[in-house]
Amino acid sequence: MTGEPMNLNGKTAVIYGGAGSVGGAIAAAFTEAGASVHLAGRTEATLKARAAELGAEYAVVDALDEQAVDRHAAAFERIDISVNVTTDNDVQGTPMVEMSVEDYLSPVVSAVRSKFLTARAAARHMIRQRSGVILFFGGTGEPSAHRKWQLGGLLAAFDAVESMRRQLAAELGPHGVRVVTLQTGGIPESVPPEHRGPIEEDIVGDTLLGRAATLGDVGRTAVFAASDWGRTITGAQVNITCGSVFG
């Protein structure tokens, strides 16, 4: 095999929500691949602990705060990779017909706002650099009729972010910037243990492979998507659903 190895040596990566399970997995994989990793989030205690584990930097940043996001990004000389895996203020466990409009719209508003702000801040660096990768996590696809989860507005939020991803990819592509979503069918390890059992059964039961993606799978796929090995991928979802979404 010829070409550059799949690594992130010399790359600066900012991960919003980096102290969470998915963000932490991506941060660990990026660190192992040689990137300079910077975690951002709202809770200093968890950020500090995860940063210490990885030898990463961290900053307390509310991804919904426009001034905070812009101020944090402006402190970097360059940003090569931006990942936003912040939670989206979703209200789950209530049938849609019993939800308030505020609860249904909450994840849509927070997802669109936070992803827009962090992507915009990174893109301003990346346009000047003529390179960069913006990663989202979630994606869309035809929902399974077998899933009985009451997810509220979460899927609508994913759809809205995917629309943003397509538009960003079109606008930023001429500047050498890629925009990619890691498309998930659910990561059981990211679910609190007390709720994991039935949810994991549903996730695995919908797959073609009879297993779900792990946090390690998420991290390794993120490295691929952000590295030069993934340089032909933009405006697209990288499917890590184990076949729960296909076609």
From TrEMBL:
<dbReference type="InterPro" id="IPR036291">
    <property type="entry name" value="NAD(P)-bd_dom_sf"/>
</dbReference>
<keyword id="KW-0560">Oxidoreductase</keyword>
<dbReference type="GO" id="GO:0016491">
    <property type="term" value="F:oxidoreductase activity"/>
</dbReference>
<dbReference type="InterPro" id="IPR051122">
    <property type="entry name" value="SDR_DHRS6-like"/>
</dbReference>
<dbReference type="Pfam" id="PF13561">
    <property type="entry name" value="adh_short_C2"/>
</dbReference>
<dbReference type="InterPro" id="IPR002347">
    <property type="entry name" value="SDR_fam"/>
</dbReference>
<protein>
    <submittedName>
        <fullName>Enoyl-[acyl-carrier-protein] reductase [NADH]</fullName>
    </submittedName>
</protein>
<comment type="similarity">
    <text>Belongs to the short-chain dehydrogenases/reductases (SDR) family.</text>
</comment>
